[in-house]
Amino acid sequence: MKGSDVIIEGVSKLFGDFKALKNVSLVIKKGEFFSLLGPSGCGKTTLLRIIAGFESPNSGAVTFDGTDILPLPPNRRPANTVFQNYALFPHLSVFENVAFPLRLQKKPKGAVNSQVRDYLHLVQLEAHAHKKPNQLSGGQKQRVAIARALINEPGVLLLDEPLSALDAKLRQHMLIELDQIHDKIGITFIYVTHDQQEALSVSDHIAVMDQGDVLQVGTPHDIYESPATDFVARFIGETNLYSAQVLTAEKLPREETEYMTELDIPELGRVKVTTVDTVHPGQKVSFTVRPEKVVISKEKPVTKREDINLFQGMVEEPIYSGFQTKFYVRVNDSAMIRVIKQHARYSDEGPDILWKDLVYLSWSANDGYIVGVQDR
């Protein structure tokens, strides 16, 4: 496996009285595509700049393959950075921009030419080798920046919101290309983004950050399906999130660590949810269920299953998007539940559920999730 193991231990950073990072610790494995995800001002770029050597922490350690890199200047660290503004030399051709790091190392001309051709092929820019940056599209400029950052074969590639200047369609296309480049090169990528879909799409692991803290580290599946906090649940995709109190918690038959829990949600009523966390009657918790897990129908579902949650409500707002419709459904005059219904089949009669329709909403206890346990 190429790349470097990156270990961040107890890193804190102050800007005056402002705590940009608060005792952050992460383990990033060799060859991973690892994303730092969070809103603006959460500390993700500050952490990336500390890894790159552009900032120094007030405390903590950063090691690559067990070696402390904090004493090293940026140009001596086995890491390169791709910035969101490309940082290309406008007076140099694409070829010379990519060749620049090798020229600094005074590599032989033949070796430089060979390596540059290889990396231009990697980013599919061979035909543009003699163009200047101002003759390129935004996506092409970003590919030049990536090729230049990779050509001296760093152990770690740091990417600071590299796609944020691109339009939505080009951003999605470049994201796929970036993932393919990672698969071919195989080194460690550390990717900073505020875009949840970007992080979910390409990451092996994600660290969700807010206000200088790391709230959760996990696979995209873990982060989406099992959020650790209210913030993570709200920030990653859409969700229905409610404060609740535990009424009962009974261990499921034939399950060693799973409980069937009944919650009281003031604006909604009683909800059943399975959980592996030990909870007790009277505890305050948060409950979430993703909109796509909720089934919406005009007819009352016929089921004998005891783990199904069933509510009736009125459609206050249907939002049709072609491939799906999002419904805002008012339940019990106080609770609003968001539902996403995918359109997998052709319909020549239009949507079957409309504004002001009375509908039934249902979901399994296994599809909800207890997000956080508060003090009793």
Verbal overview:
The protein has 376 residues and is α+β, with helices and mostly antiparallel strands. The protein has 2 domains: 6-234, P-loop containing nucleotide triphosphate hydrolases (Rossmann fold), CATH 3.40.50; 238-373, RNA polymerase II/Efflux pump adaptor protein, barrel-sandwich hybrid domain (OB fold (Dihydrolipoamide Acetyltransferase, E2P), Beta Barrel), CATH 2.40.50.100. It has 8 helices and 20 strands. It has helices at residues 44-52, 94-104, 109-122, 138-150, 168-185, 196-202, 220-225, 230-235, and strands at residues 6-15, 18-28, 33-37, 59-64, 67-68, 79-82, 156-160, 188-193, 205-210, 213-218, 240-251, 259-265, 269-275, 284-289, 295-297, 308-320, 324-331, 335-342, 358-364, 368-373. It has a 6-stranded mixed β-sheet with strand order 6-7-8-3-9-10, sandwiched between helices. A hairpin with a 3-residue loop joins strand 16 and strand 17 (324-331). Helix 2 packs across helix 3 (109-122), helix 2 (94-104) runs parallel beside helix 4 (138-150) and helix 3 (109-122) crosses helix 4 (138-150). The longest helix is centred in the middle third of the chain and has 18 residues, at 168-185. The chain is globular, with a radius of gyration of 25 Å. The relative contact order is 0.12.
